[in-house]
Design a protein that fits this description.
The complex is a heterodimer of chains A (about 350) and B (about 300). Chain A has two domains: about 230 residues, no CATH class; about 70 residues, no CATH class. Chain A contains 15 helices and no strands. In chain A, α2 packs across α6 and α6 packs antiparallel against α8. The radius of gyration of chain A is 23 Å and the shape is flat. The two termini of chain A are about 30 Å apart. With about 300 residues, chain B is of the alpha/beta class. Chain B is about 35% helix and about 30% strand. A six-stranded mixed β-sheet of chain B has the order 6-7-8-3-9-10, with helices on both faces. Chain B has a four-stranded antiparallel β-sheet with strand order 2-1-4-5, covered by helices on one side. In chain B, strands 12-13-11-14 form a four-stranded antiparallel β-sheet. Chain B starts with a strand and ends in a 6-residue tail after the last helix. The chains are: A mainly alpha (about 350), B alpha/beta (about 300).
């Protein structure tokens, strides 16, 4: 890489790009990446063609009109891509660091001047770059779907940006487990295990919560138990982060001998915050208690994809009290979902840097 | 250059390194000797900032390995005992990667890579894939990687282990070249004859504890009760042996195979007086030399009775 580019990256992000360059050289060499790319494109095209078979036979497609053909084809393409991204990228990410540990190349890297941030970021960038190449390779198929009609350009944008964020999320998860675990096989299995668990639980929990509401015949509100659990989780996460920030701030401001009381003060402030969140008459508690159960399904990657594409699920979510309708609703849902995956992916990435820095092997 | 004080490392109940203290000066070739599991690798890893010590301090070039790890890493070249290589990577790319990892500017790297490849005699393998190299070549490549940022201190953990005799000799010659380049080298090995030819100082470690550290010649001389001299002459060996035995600075004189082996205990640097004496007495001296320290013998004598 050019000296000026290297220097600029270092100045801007404190990033030594050598790990990324090295990973790119290794990952993109030989027949394997092109084999994966070819297989990816073939599967994506094949899925779209299979989806179009009923239409070519002159039948109505699951009760939909022919003007929606492009939309149906693109939905198939997007869901197939989601599956492929969730199958391919975790394997790439989960092996990235654990494999180096296994092959005993990591030790020499640790003794050099590259930082944990350089290593983790370099590896995740390359996994994401490969994910981006896979997605870009399917753009001609997406263009073909648009030509068939019934598909708006913003839907394509929403879907592809969402797929990229899912890529970030699964890569972040994979790289975190790769930093944490000693063996690449263990890291890969754990990554897929967690992804499957997320997929199953994100459907199972809302489903179970919906049963009592449906039995009552009323709107499927989350109810007090879900509100209690939700505010507890929210309180613990925000409280812990707030405590760390407040303690760091107070430690900077106060003299050394007062840091003990400062930590106590931070704990007290954060406990007040958690109590406020969890108070049954509090705004947050009430908001979660009254909100619609289907919202929880956004944690399911497939349901979330259906939402960003403005499908029936999005309409159901948007049908809640006080919600916007139509294009605005889809935009809001897209923004929320993208933010969830982006923030989670970034948090996993940061966690991987921290875990890598702490491990000594 | 390297200073270790009361360095201790435990793994659970096992004390891998116990209260280790020694010092290595600039330009020293320091042999770190001990059996497997003695604590050599653990000590080197602590110096390389890979393991935090439980107790004691270690500094490299004045930088504390715990407090200033980055400064330490910048001035050391570390070669582990076992190392892997990347697949699908050419020799020059491997070196370029590590040069970049040590923040060597991109414009300087091509020349630097050529230089280290020349030094390690791998120039003809520049465009070959790393995994296709022989074990000896991989070892030399790892050494080339260690030198790519021109470190002042080299920490070499068993650099010749598992190599065939030819590759071992090549590595030894390469290390001798580095000694001439005034690098400070800490080299661990249990192949003692190799260290004897390379090192001017040695530390013997056994079960995590330092048995002895210092100048090879001095230690050898102390253990032998003086400096061992080998004098070769064509005839009158017995007569010369008697003459030498009578001199006060000679502790003992024995007949060897076509030579006299004696232990000199006189003032340092005055060994030539023995030669002068023999020449003046009319003996035809063919050679007069100090016996190279036999590290193997030294090691066996020092560790006699110590369990591992």
């Amino acid at each position: 890489m050019n000296t000026a580019v290297e220097a600029a990256l270092y100045r801007a992000f404190r990033l030594n790009p050598c790990v990324a360059v090295h990973e790119l050289r290794m990952r993109m060499r030989g027949w394997r990446p092109f084999g994966v790319l070819l297989a990816y494109s073939c599967v994506a095209c094949g899925a779209v063609l299979i989806a179009l078979i009923p239409i070519t036979l002159g039948q109505r497609y699951f009760g939909r009109e022919l003007f929606q053909v492009g939309r149906i084809a693109f939905a198939t393409l997007a869901h197939t891509q989601l599956t492929l991204i969730m199958l391919i990228l975790p394997a790439y990410a989960a092996g990235a660091i654990a494999l180096e540990r296994e092959k005993r190349t990591l030790e020499m890297l640790r003794v050099s001047l590259v930082t944990p941030f350089d290593v983790v970021t370099g590896k995740i960038i390359v996994v994401l770059a490969f994910g981006a190449i896979l997605l870009v390779s399917s753009l001609p198929v997406a263009a073909w779907c648009m030509m068939l009609g019934g598909l708006a350009p913003e839907e394509v944008f929403y879907s592809y940006s969402y797929l990229m964020m899912v890529g970030l999320f699964v890569s972040g998860l994979g790289i975190l487990l790769s930093s944490f675990m000693g063996r690449s096989t263990g890291a890969v299995v754990a990554t897929y295990g967690i992804l499957i668990a997320i997929g199953v639980l994100s459907l199972l929990i809302p489903g179970m919560l919906m049963i009592p509401a449906m039995a009552r015949g009323g709107p499927a509100g989350l109810g007090p138990v879900a509100a209690f659990a939700g505010t507890l989780v929210l309180g613990l996460i925000t409280g812990w982060l707030g405590f760390l920030l407040l303690r760091a701030l107070l430690a900077r401001l106060l003299r050394k001998e007062r840091r003990g009381p400062a930590a106590l003060l931070a704990v007290g402030a954060m406990l007040c915050w958690v109590w406020y969140l969890m108070h049954p008459s509090g705004t947050v508690f009430k908001a979660i208690e009254n909100s619609q159960v289907p919202w929880l399904m956004v944690f399911n990657p497939y349901a979330a994809l259906a939402s960003v594409m403005g499908g029936a699920f999005a309409q159901m979510v948007a049908a809640g009290p006080g919600m916007a309708r139509g294009a605005v609703a889809t935009l809001i849902i897209w923004a929320v979902i993208i933010s969830i995956y982006l923030l989670t992916g970034a948090a996993l990435w940061a966690g991987a840097v921290r875990v890598f820095a702490r491990r000594r092997d | 250059m390297i200073e270790i004080t009361a360095l201790t490392k435990k793994f659970g109940d096992l004390v891998a390194v116990n209260d280790l203290t020694f010092r290595i000066e600039r330009g020293d070739a320091f042999g770190f000797v001990g059996p497997n599991g003695a604590g050599k690798t653990t000590t080197i890893k602590m110096l390389a900032t890979l393991l935090p010590p439980d107790n004691g301090t270690a500094t490299v070039n004045g930088h504390d390995v715990v407090k200033e790890p980055e400064a330490v890493r910048a001035c050391i070249g570390y070669m582990p005992d076992f190392f892997g290589v990347y697949d699908d990577m050419k020799v020059w790319e491997y070196l370029d990667f590590f040069a970049a990892a040590y923040r060597v500017p991109a414009r300087k790297r091509p020349q630097l890579i050529s230089d280290v490849l020349d030094l390690t005699d791998l120039s003809h393998k520049r465009d070959d894939y790393v995994e296709a190299l022989s074990r000896g070549m991989k070892q030399r490549l790892c050494l080339a990687k260690t030198l790519v940022h021109d470190p002042e201190v080299l920490l070499l953990d068993e650099p010749a282990s598992g190599l065939d005799p030819r590759a071992r000799i090549e590595i030894r010659e390469l290390l001798q070249e580095l000694v001439k380049m005034d690098k400070t080298i800490l080299i661990s090995s249990h192949i003692l004859p190799e260290l004897a030819e390379l090192c001017n100082k040695v530390a013997i470690i056994e079960a995590g504890k330092l048995v002895l550290a210092g100048d090879v010649k001095e230690i050898s001389s102390q253990l032998a009760g003086g400096l061992r001299l080998i004098i070769r002459m064509g005839n009158r060996l017995e007569e010369a042996c008697r003459l030498l035995a009578e001199r006060p600075e000679i502790a003992s004189a024995e007949l060897g195979e076509g030579c006299i082996e004696c232990v000199y205990r006189g003032p340092e640097g005055q060994q030539h007086s023995i030669l002068t004496c023999l020449v003046q007495a009319g003996f035809q001296v063919q050679s007069f030399s100090e016996e190279a320290a036999d590290l193997e013998d030294l090691y066996m004598r020092l560790t006699e009775g110590l369990g591992t």
